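Internal tracking record. Fields below are filled automatically when a chain is submitted to the structure queue. Please do not edit lines marked as system-generated. If the sequence contains nonstandard residues, flag them in the REMARKS field before resubmitting.
Queue: standard
Priority: normal
Entity type: single polypeptide chain
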Amino acid sequence: MYVVGVDVGGTFTDAVFLENDIVRSFAKIPTRNNLLDSILEAIDLVLEGIDKEKIQRIVFSTTMITNLIAEHKYDDVDLFLIPGPGLSSEYYKVRTGAHILSGAIDYRGREILSIKESEIEAALSGMVSKTSRKVGVVGKFSPRNTSHEKRVSEHIKNKYPDWHIELGSRVGGQLNFPRRVETTYLTCATREPYHYFIQSVRQALEKRDITAQVFILKADGGTVPLERAEELPVETIFSGPAASTLGVMALTPPQETAVVVDIGGTTTDLALILSGQPLLSAKGARVMERLTQVRALAVKSVAVGGDSFLENTGEGIIIHPKRMGPAYCTGGPAPTPTDALRVLGLTTLGDPDMAADAMKSLGAGLGISVVDIANKVIDMVVDTIKAEIEKMFIEWEQEPAYRIWEILNKHKVRPSIVAGVGGGAIGFVSKIAETLGCSPVIPPYASVANAIGAAVAKPTMQMSLRADTEQGYYIILEEGQQDRIKDKAFDEQKALNLAKESLINRASRYGLKIESQEIEVTRQEVFNMFRDWTTTGKIFDITVQTPRGITNRISAGEGAF
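SYSTEM-GENERATED OUTPUT FOLLOWS
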C-alpha cells in the first residue's frame, strides 16, 4: 500500500512516503508564508519517481491552529450568549466581549422565553467602533432547538452581511454550555487561517493530479475526510500532538509506556502513551486552561520551541512564548534556543559563527562566555518543559484511563521513558529525561515523526443518532436520515445498537470493515421526559466512531536516523 503523510508546522513542513511499513522517502523543508509552495515542495520531494495513481491515501496533520492559539495570534471574537435561567449570567462571561441576551430554550427544545431584538441592537451598537467582525452565538440548549441562535444570527447578518458568525449548535452537539461557548469562540477565531490551510491542501493535490483518499488528522488521533474537514477547525487544535503521539507508537515497540516530547520550532507538545495506547482526555481538549467540546488525546502544547524569541531584559534572560522568525544562525532576526544548540554542537543547523554572535548579543552585560550563555539557555528550556511535564502528570493521573492502567499494573507507577521527536529532540530530550529520572529514547525518523504519525493513522468515521421515544422518531445526522421508531420497547441499548449498525453500514460503503465490538462510543446521553410527574419518554443522544489507532508499525531502514 502506498501512503503519504504530511505535517504542516509553523517552522517546518514534513512529509513521508510509505510503502506498507517501510519509509521509502522523507523530507523536511521550511514552512513558507505561501503555504501552497511548502506543501508542493514537500510532496514533490517524497514522490519523485512515484506513480501517483498508485497512492491510496494521503493524510495531513498541522500545528497551525495550535501555534496560533499558543502565541495568541488569533482574531478577536464577540460572543452573544443565551444562558437562560439558572446560574448567574456572570458565570458565563468566560471571555471579554461577551454579551448576555434574554431568551430561553428548555432541555426538550421548547421556547420558554423569546429573544429581545432590542438587546441584540444594544450589543451591536457597542461593537461598531471595534475592529472585530467575528461573532459567536451560543444558546444553552441550542442542540435541542436552534431557533434562538438562528434568530440572533439573522439579525446580525441583515445589518452586517460581511460579518463572520458561528453558531454553537453547529460547532458542538453536547449540552455542556461553557465548553460549547469556548469551542465556538475558538472555531470563530481560527476559521479563516484554517480555511487557508484547507484550500492550500486542495490546490496542491489538484496541481499534482493526486486523486487518492485525503484525510485530515483530528485531535483524538482519528481522521476526517478532506471534504468535511473545513466544518470544524478546532478538531485540529491538537492535530500536531496527535500526529507525534501516533508517530512514536509506530516507531517504538508495542506495549511501550512513554512520555512523548515533540520539540518543534514554535511549540513543544506533550503526550502520554500507556502500554502502547495514547491516553485520551475524558473531559475534552483543554486550551489555555479552558475546557472545550473537542475530543482529544490528553496532550498539552507549551509555547516554547527551537525558534522561541530570547531576550536579555537587563535583569536576566527570558524566553518569550512567541516566534519572531527562524533561528539567527539561519538568517532569523533574533537569538533562539536553536542558536544555543548550534554553539554547543547539538545541531548542525545553520551557521556556527552566526549562532555564536546570537549568544554573544544575548549575554551582553552578563559577563559570561558564549558557551555558558548557550548552556544557560538550554537549561532554561529544559526546566520549562520539565515543569510542564510535572503539571501534566498531575492531570494525567486524574484521567480514568490512567487510573485503570495503574490498577492493572498493581501499583502507582510513572513511565520511565521520555520519547523525543521533532527537530529539537536530539538537543534537549536527554537532559529532559535526566531531570525526570527517566531514560531518553529518540526513535528512528524522529525529525519527521509527525508526518509518519499522520501516514499511519487509521481512517475513521463517526455516526450520530438522536432518538425521541415520546415523539417516536430517530435521526441519523450524518446520513440525513429520519425514521419512525417502530419498536415499542426501544431503549438505550437498542439505540446504541442502531447507531453501531448504521456506522458499520456506512463504513462498508467506504471500504472499512469493522466489528461491533471495535466501535468506540464517544458520546452517550439519556434524558428523561416527564409530564404530570410521570415519565413519558426518553431522548437518546449517541455518537459512535470507528476505532482509532495506527495501521502498522514502521520498520527502520537505511537513513532512519
